[in-house]
TrEMBL record:
<keyword id="KW-0129">CBS domain</keyword>
<dbReference type="GO" id="GO:0016765">
    <property type="term" value="F:transferase activity, transferring alkyl or aryl (other than methyl) groups"/>
</dbReference>
<dbReference type="GO" id="GO:0006535">
    <property type="term" value="P:cysteine biosynthetic process from serine"/>
</dbReference>
<protein>
    <submittedName>
        <fullName>Cystathionine beta-synthase</fullName>
    </submittedName>
</protein>
<keyword id="KW-0663">Pyridoxal phosphate</keyword>
<comment type="similarity">
    <text>Belongs to the cysteine synthase/cystathionine beta-synthase family.</text>
</comment>
Amino acid sequence: MKYYNNILETIGNTPMVKLNKLVAEIPATVLAKVETFNPGNSIKDRMALKMIEDAEKEGKLKPGYTIIEGTSGNTGMGLAIAAIIKGYKCIFTTTDKQSKEKVDALKAFGAEVIVCPTNVDPEDPRSYYSVSSRLVNETPNSWKANQYDNLSNSKAHYEQTGPEIWEQTEGKITHLVVGVGTGGTICGTGKYLKEKNPNIKIWGIDTYGSVFKKYKETGIFDKNEIYPYITEGIGEDFLPENVDMSIIDLFEKVTDKDAALMTREIVKKEGIFVGNSAGAAIAGLKQLKDKLTKDDVVVVIFHDHGTRYLGKMFNDDWMRERGFLQEEFITAKDLVKD
Ligand code: PMP
């Protein structure tokens, strides 16, 4: 019989899929690492399990404990799945910017979810970082995963995502393109790939409203770079420990509109149902296409699944309200003159 002993054993070994119509104008071969095939439908299953296993080994997480984390949803999903199999409780804090689908999905897995305001400083007592820290202090037998500064996050990608990409491309990869949030995916994967071949370029995709690009280029942490944005999963208003700037060769910023429109394009042109950061990554890659040649092999990470964005990028009203869709539908009401 061929079976897995539990759902956690299905994490990783995701497929690599060549992109065709979507990237017709890019001279290189472009391959997507489609992380939606993980059981929680995102790449974050990998690091969630690794953080839990490392904490268990270090004696920080014991049977019956409560796992606490500030999460935009995908990390929470990975933690919640592992918690079910391993017998932990979960309490997550998230922001009111995140899609309702993500919050409901976490609750479906038995997690308690506390929604906090987006537009406050990380140090503000109402921020989702502060609330999760306070919960750890107030909850006996609890452990905060701390995906931003917990280096088990990037280690998961150094141990799994990097070797998988190296093998799947038979060592031919020349560029890695990744949306950056905690930095775990890009820095863990990029570190492994650069050790194999230091000529591989590692390109980070950032958002307008985030500090990464300016910091990489000037070494200055510029608070003026911080303002609210719509793109989910990438960009930060602080520098997480998992971001190792020495691994990343450059950052490219993508607008909320371009990321949202490109998310829809991926589905329409390739039939791959992915989330907002995949759209940002492809839009960023297209902005950088003049740096590529026909011999290049580019791998783009598709972090998560489109179902989590049905009420957002995939909803025409949501897109129109933000001015992201140009065409206007004429309704019967518009035709009635009073
Ligand atoms: N895309 C999505 C949808 C995510 O949830 C995240 C995690 N915040 C990222 C991209 C960025 O990945 P990382 O945290 O590893 O930098």
